[in-house]
Amino acid sequence: MTFVLAVDDDPAILRTLSINLRARGYDVETAGDGRSALQIVQERMPDVVILDLGLPDLDGVAVLKRLRSHAQVPVVVLSARHESDDKVEALDEGADDYVTKPFDMEELLARVRAAIRRTGGDGAPFVVEVGDVRLDITERQATRNGEEVRLTPTEWHIVEVLARREGRLVRQAELLHEVWGPGYDRETNYLRVFLAQLRRKLEADPARPTLFITDPGIGYRLVV
User: Fold this and answer.
1) 12, 96, 162, 190: which could join 74 in a potential S-S bond, CB 3.0 to 4.6 Å?
2) How far is it, in rounded angstroms, from Cα 85 to Cα 70?
3) 138/70 Cα distance (integer angstroms)
């Protein structure tokens, strides 16, 4: 049974999460603050964590950093913070996804399932190999010419969305929605910055990409 740890300082939200998750067959434990959450993780590693950022003791990002110092458990941030800086910080510190409050329960549950799949919770490894580039999306390990390449969590999220389309076009708005969430459909500058970073890290010639291809003004594709 999949074990979910839900961390939030709002008892009503914790009750709602517990009821809905248990109704779908999850084993659920809740924590109202960051220190309690870290204590639960120390005693029993969850399969996925739903984490609020506005906690009464430790900030949620601090909890995330401590988690990432010793564990790769998938983390779905659930927060009332809507600013892009908060989202980028959480994703860059290792969050697998970011959902803003108020939230739709079915969407949140879908994102929890996706986070578990991305980390291999369904038992099927997800690996893409193109030329001298190998992307193990399940383990989040990238190599080029046999040498390790470090990607940020946001870069990995972009890679996964593109890789799951098997070379097909992913439109800009869709990619922004998948990676950054609703409300970011017009922030195309995010994509330009992150795709440039990915090309520098993985392309033989970033100025003439053969892996991450742009359809100008439309979207991107990962050529596999």
Assistant:
1) 96
2) 25
3) 17
Q: What is the pLDDT of residues 78-121, one digit of tens each?
A: 988 777 787 888 888 888 889 988 888 988 988 888 887 766 55
The 3-state DSSP class for residue 107 equals helix
Q: Rounded CA gap, 138 and 120, in Å?
A: 5
Exposure string over 106-133, b if 16+ CB within 10 A, otherwise e:
eebbebbebbbbbbbbeeeebebeeeeb
Locate CATH 1.10.10.10 in the chain: 127-222
Residues 180, 187 contacting (CB under 8 angstroms): yes
- Segments of the chain assigned to CATH 3.40.50.2300: 3-118
Q: Please check whether residue 91 is in contact with residue 98, taking contact to mean a CB–CB distance below 8 angstroms.
A: yes
Contact yes or no for 172/194 (Cβ under 8 A): no
> Model confidence at 123, in pLDDT bands (50, 70, 90)?
very low
User: Listing from the earlier edge strand, what are the strands of the sheet with 141-144?
Assistant: 127-130, 133-136, 141-144, 147-149
127-222 has which fold?
Arc Repressor Mutant, subunit A (1.10.10)
Q: Which fold has domain 3-118?
A: Rossmann fold (3.40.50)
Which runs of consecutive H residues, i.e. helices, occur in 24-171?
A: 34-43, 60-68, 84-92, 105-118, 153-163
Q: What is the pLDDT of residues 9-67, one digit of tens each?
A: 999 999 999 999 998 888 899 999 999 999 998 888 888 999 999 999 988 999 999 98
Sign of CA dihedral 2, 75, 84, 12: positive
Task: Name the pTM for this structure.
Answer: 0.56
